[in-house]
Amino acid sequence: MERIKVLVVSSVVPNAPGSGGELVLHRHLKLNSQVEAAVVSWERFPFRLKIIGKMRELGFRSLSRWMECLFPVLPSSKMVGDLVQSFRPDVILTVAHGWWHIQARRVATEFEVPLVSFFQDWWADFPDVPRAFRSRVEREFRQTCADSAVAICVSDGMRRALGEPENALVIHDVPSFTTFRSDRCDVTAPMRVAYFGNLGEYGPLIESALHVLRNSKRVRLEVFGSNPLWTAGTEEEFRSLGLYHGFLPTDQLEESLRQFQAVLVVMSFAPEFRRRMTTSFPSKMINATQLGLPVIVWGPEYCSAVQWARVGDRALCVTGADSSALRHALEALADSPSDQERLANSAREAAAGEFNSERIEDEFISVLRRAIANRLSSRNPSG
Domain tally for the chain? Predict the structure, then answer.
């Protein structure tokens, strides 16, 4: 069977190592033998983008964001059109984050190539988008959904927020961890709990958790990640105590996490992030289940991770923002080997089922084939 030719026109591109969205595209497009991918990119950055970058270097971040919203820097229609003509893609793929999805839908319409779009975060609510432009950015975001042959939503919450359009379906991110523990949970004191991932937006929450658990005899929280948004001196303090390990590549991180007894997943309680917390789905949740360890979700009741966990009691949920509530829940879990084993079994079931990488890849390929079939049927309505 011939490989599906996918042209990526997106601000988020396949990349490993990279951000969460970049890794997802890398696994879907670069590691899948059924796909042949080409990526639109600049050999040289346009002058306007250089100006925006220089403004940020000089500390004018707010002004640079305004300029980027007023004059989005998009790849030229000619450059993308030339690549469409030479590569002859079956599908154009984009991520509705940043600005390039606007150009992706224009080119898809012009050349009558089906558009498949990922909706992983509610881009209009990101700090990079000034409030004055958010309604405009949201209109573009929703228009890309409307113009897509298939809109891939990362969560049920995202699909609902988009209005549950007929062309939208939910496919979770592909896990980056590949194997999980099949042995019983180790009952040790203290119970070692790992947090890995975003230490920017979630940094203050993790800092408060580290402080409140520092003197616990039953729970030891250890943190992996880069550039923590912590108060001065905190990084050095927790690194010296062996509680902060910095960033580790995926293979090293996966190996290190095998020494733990549970995994902490965090989502923000900040009111301004509410829609993002209901529409996004944490990839670290998917990766945590691959380890076959109990998962603890610390986040508001409305967030996607808690809503997922509530179905079948698949993770321990702590929905109070006070870190003392987290300590109480973790210490209770440390004292209950039966709860640890129950939650570990739930994680293994999720990893083998809903979050199984082969299943997710099959769903993605089905989406590409569905988009192609829809285009062919529209061209030949009588056939």
Answer: 2
pTM for this prediction: 0.88
For residue 336, the domain's CATH number is 3.40.50.2000
How many whole angstroms separate alpha carbon 299 and alpha carbon 297? 6
One domain for residues 246 and 283: yes
Same domain, 306 and 264: yes
Vertex 251, ends 246 and 254: CA angle to 5°?
75
Helices (H) and strands (E) in the chain, counts: 16, 11
In a shared domain, residues 83 and 212: no
**383 residues of the chain, pLDDT tens digit each:** 689 999 999 998 888 776 778 888 889 988 889 999 999 987 655 666 667 677 677 777 777 777 777 777 788 888 899 999 999 999 999 999 999 999 999 999 999 999 999 999 999 998 888 888 899 999 999 999 999 999 999 999 999 999 999 999 999 998 887 765 545 555 567 999 999 989 988 999 999 999 999 999 999 999 999 999 999 999 999 999 999 999 998 888 988 998 999 999 999 999 999 999 999 999 999 999 999 999 999 999 999 999 999 998 899 999 999 999 999 999 999 999 999 999 999 999 999 999 999 999 999 999 999 999 977 555 555 54
